[in-house]
Amino acid sequence: YHYDLALQLHSSGVEACFVLGKFDVLNELSRKVVQNAVCLKDKIRVYVSLISSISSQGRICDAIDFGLGVLEKLGETLPSNLDDDEVITDYVVHTSALLAQLDVE
Predict the structure, then answer these.
(1) Which of 40, 42, 55, 79 has its Cα between 20 and 30 A from that of 8?
(2) In Å, what is the CA distance from 73 to each residue of 6, 15, 39, 54?
(3) Which CA distances in Å does 51 have to 32, 42, 45?
């Protein structure tokens, strides 16, 4: 039972498949990791690769949906009914707060 080694090898394999464009193998290895991982933390590396894989295939909406599902599993939810003005306002407020924290000289 070499769980950590197997997890690292499979996760690295998923990342290698992404770089090589071997999306069918990537999906198979990802499925194995997700099925056998003992906790959500162990799945995150593969989830990131899956999101990258989906978006690199031009399926941006699918990648966003998948990413939102991962965020939900992590306990983070985003409102589904945001309008552009609300998003822009939140972005400006958040950016302003971050800029206010900087020490401007």
Answers:
(1) 55
(2) 23, 21, 11, 19
(3) 16, 16, 10
pTM score: 0.73
Nearest to 23 by CA among 37, 13, 33: 13
DSSP string, 28-91: HHHHHHHHH-SSGGGGHHHHHHHHHHHHHTT-HHHHHHHHHHHHHHTT----TT--HHHHHHHH
For every one of its 105 residues, what pLDDT tens digit does the chain have, with 9 covering 90 and above?
799 999 999 999 999 999 999 999 999 999 999 999 999 899 999 999 999 999 899 888 888 889 888 888 888 777 666 666 777 677 677 767 777 776 544
